[in-house]
Amino acid sequence: SEQIESMEPVRDRVIRVTFNADVHSSIQWNFAPQQKEIYVVPGETALAFYKAKNPTDKPVIGISTYNVIPFEAGQYFNKIQCFCFEEQRLNPQEEVDMPVFFYIDPEFVEDPKMAKVDLITLSYTFFEAKEGQKLPLPGYQ
Description:
9 strands
C-alpha cells in the first residue's frame, strides 16, 4: 500500500484496458465483464467488475485464471484485489459482481518495449473447481 500511495501518475500516457471473459466447457456459468474497456494512466489505480451467474439448479464452485495481452505488459499490470485463483461458490441461480482493483506500474513508460503499447487486454477464464486441483500461475514475476 505504501508503494501505491507514493506512485506518481503518468498523465501524458493513456492506456486503453479492455476486458475479456471466457468459461471452460467444464462449467455452465454465465460470465462477462461489466465494462468493455476503461482508460487508465500508469501509476493510477482503477476498478473494474465482472459478473458471474450460476444458471443451474445445483451449487457450483469455480476458479479462474487470467492472462494479460500483450504478454510483455503483464509484468506492469498489478492487481491489488482480484477473484482469480480463489474458489468462488455460486448457489443455484446466484449472481455475483466480482471486482478487479488494479494499476499499471509507472515504470511501464520507461520500458522501450512498451513504447507503442496503448492497449492492454485483461482476460479471465473460469473452470469448475475439482477437489485438489491446482491451477498454474502466470509465467511472469
